[in-house]
Amino acid sequence: MLQGSNYTNALTGQKTQVHYTFTDNWSPRFGLAIDPLGDRKTKIYGNYARTSYAIPLDLAIRSLSNEEDAEFAFFQPPFTDPSGQACTVPGACQLATNA
Q1: Is this structure's pTM higher than 0.85?
Q2: pLDDT over threshold 60, residue 48
Q3: Would the pLDDT of 90 be above 50?
Q4: CA distance 42 to 33
Q5: How far apart are the C-alpha atoms of 17 and 8, rounded to whole Å?
Q6: Would you place residue 97 in the very low, low, confident or very high pLDDT band (cuts 50, 70, 90)?
Q7: How many CB atoms lie within 10 A of CB 93?
Q8: 3-class state of residue 97 by DSSP
Q9: Cα(74)–Cα(22) distance, integer angstroms
Q10: CA angle, corner 74, sides to 70 and 77, nearest 5?
Q11: What DSSP string describes 14-32?
Q12: Which H or E run contains 48?
């Protein structure tokens, strides 16, 4: 959403104005280009910037590659031993009581 843009809420049908305030995100930049010979063919340049957020060093690899992320989720349902004890590994309660 752009600052100050309007949109219609799909659930209520009411128009709502969105307003974001971006404070403390000032990012100064300075650049300089010099043509020392005056022939419009030679250029010496430099720039400096301070950003308000950290840019990852592998940004180009992340955004321009076909790299896929893998996410895993493991769930351990509690198993009930015939003696009534709850175990996370089947048979673990039996092994513990027999020892």
Answers
A1: no
A2: yes
A3: yes
A4: 10
A5: 9
A6: very low
A7: 19
A8: helix
A9: 39
A10: 165
A11: -EEE------S----EEEE
A12: strand 44-49
